């Protein structure tokens, strides 16, 4: 009888133990699952944060590149504008120019001075003819007594005195500097030009120098005015 009770008690203990073990396992299992899901969630969040950080870095790099390209484009436009402005100033005679050229010296004939003949001031019309001849033979830059000749240059007689843009040309010698990309051809043609004979008739000699390297023509000193251009008004 006692053995039966003992075995019964043992059996009950085993059953209770198994139930407790099952219950303990049942209680513990969700915690393990939750812990595993939490780590997976943390890992996923960390991966997303790393991806977001990478994307932000790439965005900053692209923005920096775009800013750099914009700066370069702006600088390129500014450089092109300055270059164009420089070319326009050069073509309009507002800058000093150095190149191959010749020097033409106009002065009274020595024979006329010895004979006591009257030496008149240079004729504005004759001087303009000389400039036209030089331009016809591909002169690129011209100055007369240090005054640059441009499209708006005025050579005329004022109160009996020849002037170029208001500067007097009454004293001799008169020096004409001429630059050309084909200076030898220019020199050869101007030496046999008929305009030289016209100076001789006026008791003036015209000496044409040999080609000169690095001859400088000064810039135009006066303000260049345009008859048809006006500053744009503010809108």
Automatic annotation (TrEMBL):
InterPro entries in alphabetical order: DUF881
Coiled coil: 52-79
Pfam families xrefs: DUF881 (PF05949)
GO molecular function: endonuclease activity
Keyword annotations: Coiled coil, Endonuclease, Hydrolase, Membrane, Nuclease, Transmembrane, Transmembrane helix
Domain of life (superkingdom): Bacteria
The keyword Isomerase is annotated on this UniProt entry: no
Disulfide bond as UniProt keyword: no
Transmembrane annotation, as ranges: 7-24
Family the UniProt entry places it in: Belongs to the UPF0749 family.
Protein name: NgoFVII family restriction endonuclease
């Amino acid at each position: 009888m006692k053995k039966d009770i003992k075995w019964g008690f043992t059996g009950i203990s085993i059953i209770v133990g198994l139930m407790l073990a099952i219950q303990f396992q049942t209680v513990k299992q969700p915690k393990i699952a939750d812990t595993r899901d939490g780590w997976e969630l943390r890992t996923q969040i960390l991966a997303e944060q790393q991806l977001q950080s990478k994307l932000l870095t790439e965005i900053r790099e692209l923005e920096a590149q775009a800013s750099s390209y914009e700066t370069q484009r702006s600088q390129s436009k500014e450089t092109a504008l300055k270059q164009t402005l420089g070319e326009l100033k050069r073509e309009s005679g507002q800058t000093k120019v150095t190149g191959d050229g010749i020097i033409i010296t106009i002065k009274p004939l020595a024979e006329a001075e010895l004979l006591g003949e009257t030496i008149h001031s240079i004729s504005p019309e004759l001087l303009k003819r000389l400039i036209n001849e030089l331009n016809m033979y591909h002169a690129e830059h011209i100055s007369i007594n240090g005054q640059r000749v441009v499209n708006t240059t005025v050579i005329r007689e004022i109160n009996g005195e020849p002037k170029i843009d208001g500067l007097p040309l009454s004293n001799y010698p008169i020096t004409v500097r001429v630059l050309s990309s084909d200076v030898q051809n220019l020199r050869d043609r101007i030496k046999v030009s008929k305009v030289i004979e016209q100076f001789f008739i006026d008791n003036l000699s015209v000496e044409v120098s040999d080609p000169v390297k690095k001859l400088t023509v000064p810039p135009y000193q006066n303000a260049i005015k345009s008859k048809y251009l006006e500053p744009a008004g503010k809108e």
